[in-house]
Structures are given as C-alpha cells and as structure tokens.
Amino acid sequence: MTDPGLMSIGAFAKLAGLTASALRFYDDAGLLRPERVDPLSGYRFYSEAQLVRALQLRQLREIGMPLPTIGRFFTASAADALRLIDDQVARATAEAEGIQQTAAALKAFLGEGAYLTLCVLPGPVLAAAVDQVLATTTHDPEIPVLGGVRLEADPDALSLTATDRYRLATRTLVPASLLPLPGRGRWPETTSRPPRRGSGGASP
Q1: Per residue in 24-38, pLDDT tens?
Q2: What is the third-level CATH fold of 119-192?
Q3: Residue 137: strand, helix, or coil
C-alpha cells in the first residue's frame, strides 16, 4: 500500500520542474534518492520534504554545475556551498565571454564586419611609433621577418617590436580601446616595409 504522504515520480517531477527520466538519472547518480521504491513494481515515490533538494538540483544544473560538484555541494558546509556556486558562475561567465568573442570572429569572417577590431589608436600616434622602430629593421632575403615590425595586442597595450638581430626597438602604446582576439590572449601580426635601397644583408 502506498503511503498517502508520498508522491509518484510523475507528480513529484511536475512540482520540481524536472522530468521523470531526470529523476531516475539523479537516483542512479546518487544525488536524489526516492523516499520509497515499491519492491514489487519498482515504482519510485517521493516526499514533499525532498522538493527543496530537487529544486536546488535543478538550479545547479541550470548554471551548468557538473554532477560530481553537485554531489560535493549537498555535503558541503554553507560557506563551501556558496564558494562552489561562485566558482561555477565564474567558469560559466568565462565560457560565455569566450563564446561571444568566437561568435564575433566568425561573424566578421562571414561578412558581418569587414574587419575584427582589436584596438583603436589615433593614426598619427601609430605612424610615429612605426617610424621609431622601423629604423631597427633590415633587409635580409634569407630572413624576411627582419624587414617587418611585430605588433602584439595585450589586454591593455599595443606593442611594436623590430630587430635586425643586433639591435632591438620596442614601443608600447595604450590604445583608446582594445578588444582581445577570440580564443587567444595575444594577437601577433607583422607589418612589413619595402626593402631600403642599398641596405646590406645581416650576417648570420
């Protein structure tokens, strides 16, 4: 005989905002055991007191918390449980930002934007910085990169670097705004200049 204070899995699932299959899965995972299982039919029954745990379980899954972490959540102290929530929110936020940046890059390549903006600098400022480091470049057919300027966009600065293997020149600019390239912490690019007339190659 079924206890009148217990609910069938279907009724409990409806109150908790879960599916019956999800409840069976959480039972198998050891996260939410039914109050009673009928020994003959195998039917699961739940009590009203289990609703709080079921609702928390649903909410934890909604923020993307992995099942092993949810298991620790239910056995943790209040302070540790709060920390687990904060850690998951931080991970989810970072993942969302990465998704947004990757989507922006894809849209740019698909034509919604002709270019992916990494930073904004006044033209004269950038031109002056390029001129300052260009003097350190050289023309070497065997090492073409020595004739260019390396640009690196960091989270808060744009760096220009050039070298002829004997000298090194670097200029760091703070842009008006800077956006990181999706999927990478740094965005390197090289801008080359035409060879200088009469310049000799660098010896190895």
Answers
A1: 999 999 999 999 999
A2: DNA Polymerase III; Chain A, domain 2 (3.10.150)
A3: coil
